Amino acid sequence: DTAVSQTPKYLVTQMGNDKSIKCEQNLGHDTMYWYKQDSKKFLKIMFSYNNKELIINETVPNRFSPKSPDKAHLNLHINSLELGDSAVYFCASTQSGVEQYFGPGTRLTVT
Amino acid sequence: GQNIDQPTEMTATEGAIVQINCTYQTSGFNGLFWYQQHAGEAPTFLSYNVLDGLEEKGRFSSFLSRSKGYSYLLLKELQMKDSASYLCAVRDGDYKLSFGAGTTVTVRA
């Protein structure tokens, strides 16, 4: 009965690889997000989708590509991984833009 | 652009009160949020202010002054489990949240 789930929880990979992170919410929310939290714990928005439409696209390298197959899912694909991509990536969802519910996070380590 | 400032760290004793201040200068304002984040976990929602004044929810209260670009989160009767990072966030428009860097609160026995 998890509200917002992410897979995988941990991801260790080498520079140059391509990887994907998946997110699913069972709350019936219409808006989903990807955030990046770096080693200094600063939480920064990357993308947001509302009803499968991209509504927020911050200054993020185009190696990062989000995809929302339906309202309940938002995936993040990262090409040509770099050391600086190492961080915790959080998915979140909301209905009507008030309280956001966060997933447990995916800790990405690029070696 | 967004500029959200809060202290980096605070320490307090169990049973005491701690006030975490947040000042903001943002291009738009549609509400101020406080989130709690324990180490290694996801942020969880604590409070939301869109109008000036104090919102109280149990041991936690949040205050907003829009004219001053200022908010605070008040934690009363501190417990050890309150040791966490507290994130101030401003909503710009309908959906976008911009977060401050967070305040790490350490509660000592």
Supply the number of helical segments of chain A: 0
Distance between the termini of chain A: 34 Å
- Topology, number of strands of chain B: 11
Secondary structure: helix percent of chain A? under 10%
- Please state the overall shape of chain B, judged from the principal axes of the Cα atoms: globular
Radius of gyration of chain A: 13 Å
Helicity of chain B, in percent? under 10%
Descriptive tags:
heterodimer; A: 111 residues; mainly beta; seven-stranded mixed beta sheet; four-stranded antiparallel beta sheet; 11 strands; 57% strand; B: 109 residues; six-stranded mixed beta sheet; five-stranded antiparallel beta sheet; globular
In short:
The complex is a heterodimer of chains A (111) and B (109). Chain A has 111 residues and is mostly beta strands.
Describe this protein's structure.
The complex is a heterodimer of chains A (111) and B (109). Chain A has 111 residues and is mainly β. Chain A has no helices and 11 strands. Chain A has strands at 4-7, 10-13, 19-25, 31-37, 43-50, 53-57, 64-70, 73-78, 87-94, 101-102, 106-110. Chain A is globular, with a radius of gyration of 13 Å. By secondary structure, chain B is mainly β. Chain B is built from no helices and 11 strands. Chain B has strands at residues 2-5, 9-13, 18-26, 32-37, 44-49, 53-57, 60-65, 70-75, 84-92, 96-99, 103-108. In chain B, the strands form 2 sheets. In chain B, strands 2, 4, 5, 9, 10 and 11 form a 6-stranded mixed β-sheet that branches. In chain B, strands 1-3-8-7-6 form a 5-stranded antiparallel β-sheet, with no helix packed on it. Chain B is globular and about 40 Å long. Chain B starts with a strand and ends with a strand.
